Every structure is written in C-alpha cells, then in structure tokens.
Predict the 3D structure of the following.
Amino acid sequence: MHEASIAESLIEQVLDLARLHRLQEVTRVHVEVGVQRLVVPEALELAFQAASEETLAAGARLDLTEVAIRARCQACGNEYDAEIDDYTCPSCGRAQAELIAGDDIVLVSLEGNREDEHDHRQDRSQRVGGE
C-alpha cells in the first residue's frame, strides 16, 4: 500500500508548515491527487489518520481532490484529456504525450488553530496556502 508512504510524507510537510505558522492544532488538510498516481482515496484517508496520531494533525479532516490526466501532444501541440491506458492525441492520432496534469500529489492548503499572541488561552484560526 503506497498510500502509507504518501501519508507519512504529507504529515511531515503538514507538521513543518504548522510549526512555521505557529499552529497548535491542524484541523483540515487539502490535497490534490493526480489520477496517474493510482491512489485509493479511502486507503490514503486511513493511512493519513494513522500517520497523524499523536501529532498536531491528529483528527484533522483530509480533503482530497482528484486531478484528471491532461497531456500535450509533442507532435502537434494539442492539449487534451488523456486516460491512464490511452495517450493518443485526438487531433493527430499520435501517442507522443507529455503529461501536464494528473501525475502529482500536491499539498494545497491546511487550516488550524494557534494561540493568540495577546491571550494564550484564546484560539485563532489560521489558513496556510491558497485555493
């Protein structure tokens, strides 16, 4: 299950960002996963939960967005949606594809709480990254 190693890598990145932004707790993590990576969403969610135990991200919601495969034909320059088993260009019929989307795993953003600098008992939400 390669989802476990993906989850461990995500947690490392999440915890680094949480420390950088002085978060006391991570409540939400948004990740884009390319179809080409063949990730099983349910397996990644379970692996993420296990990897985040006893960390600032324990109990955080993992939001996954699947990214379709996009290709650019190196023969004619056409950009098109491709399938895992078919990279044939619909314009010229060649299979000289360069993948331009759908082969990455990207940590898009995370949300969490941090202590207010003026009153250490008050939590304040913080969003890291953009959508």
